[in-house]
């Protein structure tokens, strides 16, 4: 029976992916560089910790710890960072001088790059910082930014809490060195939620794939347009509600530290979720179990959302603000997508919609989802991925 085999097929597909991963392992984090900045009364200085393999990949160098760095290699690295790392204020960027290079003593194949910043004194209360190194080639790469010292708020020796995670679509941010109020932090997290859903192409495609059938009803084995706006809107409300409840649950649990899965598994299941909904758009094999499947997959999307916030190492109050603000931002981003797409789909539903829109759009999304599934399951590096 179709309705009996649907959940079994979903479970079997998820089990096949899970077989590739050690579920008891700690969460796998994307490749990351670490940026440190000291805000001292006498100026700004800091360092960047980067994997030698990443540097070699983007610069074309062949650096090795055994051979050390020559003057030409140092210049190539400095020129590369000048194009991908900037610190300044509203008036413009400051000059950054890269003054020393050292292979990290406690980790193999990591290079410490020390720099000094020609900033005005006293240092302004707000800094504009941009970072795009490595990630322009590897979309999974991130830049973890720390304020090591900040004399304006009495911060010294911070080696744990990151202030920001730079990534594709999040290459530039503004820092208030006097410290943001809780309300400002809330707004920042909400903004990050909106940005994350908009640049998270896999999350967007999952939602779009679901919306494609929101203006249709299944009768006599074929898709037919809904008769009125009310039923179509009910479908949209159901889609958004189920997805929202599911990802909100796991976002909260993950921030609390009660769920921890390898990100490779999470991202693979997210790709699988898109592919299964695409197939359901063609064959409607999920039947009455569709919303159960959406809920289950929404749980994994929530874990994907949590990856961004977990990297920040937040305290309890900040985690609470992050949970509420980021989640509201995600919902606002989703709502914007729905408000743009749904009216268009509703107007087109009577114009041979399955043949002209549903099938071609689903097929195109399915191709992307298939590639993501292969790429993520086998841990391939292609540079063509979601953020």
Write up this protein.
- The chain is α+β, with helices and mostly antiparallel strands.
- The protein has 2 domains: about 1-30 and about 190-375, no CATH class; about 30-180, no CATH class.
- About 50% of the residues lie in helices and about 20% in strands.
- It contains 10 helices and 12 strands.
- A 6-stranded mixed β-sheet has the order 5-6-2-1-8-9.
- Strand 11 and strand 12 (about 220-225) form a beta hairpin.
- Helix 7 packs antiparallel against helix 10.
- The protein is elongated, with a radius of gyration of 24 Å.
- The model is unreliable at about 1-5, about 15-30 and about 385 (pLDDT under 50).
Could you outline the blueprint of secondary structure elements for this entry?
Layout: H1 2-18, E1 32-40, E2 43-51, H2 52-59, H3 71-84, E3 85-89, E4 92-93, E5 95-103, E6 110-118, E7 126-131, E8 142-150, E9 164-166, E10 172-176, H4 182-199, H5 201-211, E11 216-219, E12 222-225, H6 229-256, H7 263-283, H8 290-310, H9 316-348, H10 353-377
């Amino acid at each position: 029976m179709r309705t009996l085999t649907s959940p079994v097929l979903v479970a079997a597909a998820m089990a096949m992916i899970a077989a590739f991963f050690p579920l008891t392992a700690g969460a796998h984090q994307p490749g990351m560089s670490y940026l440190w900045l000291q805000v001292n009364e006498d100026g700004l200085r800091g360092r960047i910790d980067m994997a030698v393999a990443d540097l070699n990949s983007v610069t074309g160098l062949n650096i090795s710890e055994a051979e050390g760095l020559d003057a030409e290699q140092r210049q190539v690295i400095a020129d590369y960072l000048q194009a991908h790392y900037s610190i300044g204020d509203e008036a413009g960027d400051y000059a950054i001088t890269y003054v020393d290079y050292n292979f990290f003593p406690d980790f193999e194949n990591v290079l410490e790059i020390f720099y000094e910043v020609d900033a005005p004194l006293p240092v302004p209360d707000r800094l504009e910082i941009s970072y795009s190194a490595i990630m322009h080639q590897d979309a999974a790469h991130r830049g973890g930014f720390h304020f090591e010292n900040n004399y304006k708020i009495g911060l010294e020796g911070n080696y744990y809490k990151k202030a920001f995670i730079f990534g594709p679509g999040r290459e530039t941010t503004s820092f208030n060195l006097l410290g943001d109020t809780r309300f400002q932090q809330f707004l920042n997290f909400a903004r990050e939620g909106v940005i994350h859903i908009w640049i998270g192409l896999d999350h967007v495609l999952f939602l779009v794939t679901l919306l494609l059938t929101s203006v249709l009803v299944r009768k006599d084995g074929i898709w037919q347009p809904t008769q009125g706006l009310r039923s179509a809107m009910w479908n949209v409300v159901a889609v958004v509600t189920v997805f929202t409840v599911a990802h909100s649950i796991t976002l909260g649990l993950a921030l609390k530290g009660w769920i921890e899965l390898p990100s490779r598994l999470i991202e693979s299941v997210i790709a699988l979720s898109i592919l299964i909904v695409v197939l359901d758009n063609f064959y409607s094999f999920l039947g009455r179990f569709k919303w159960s499947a959406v809920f289950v997959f929404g749980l994994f999307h929530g874990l994907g959302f949590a990856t961004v916030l977990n990297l920040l190492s937040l305290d309890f109050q900040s985690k609470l603000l992050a949970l509420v603000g980021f989640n509201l931002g995600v919902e606002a981003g989703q709502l914007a997508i729905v408000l743009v797409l749904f009216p268009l789909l509703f107007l087109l539903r009577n114009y041979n919609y399955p043949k002209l829109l549903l099938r071609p759009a689903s097929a195109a999304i399915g191709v992307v989802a298939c590639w993501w599934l292969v790429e993520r399951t086998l841990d391939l590096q292609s540079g063509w991925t979601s953020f």
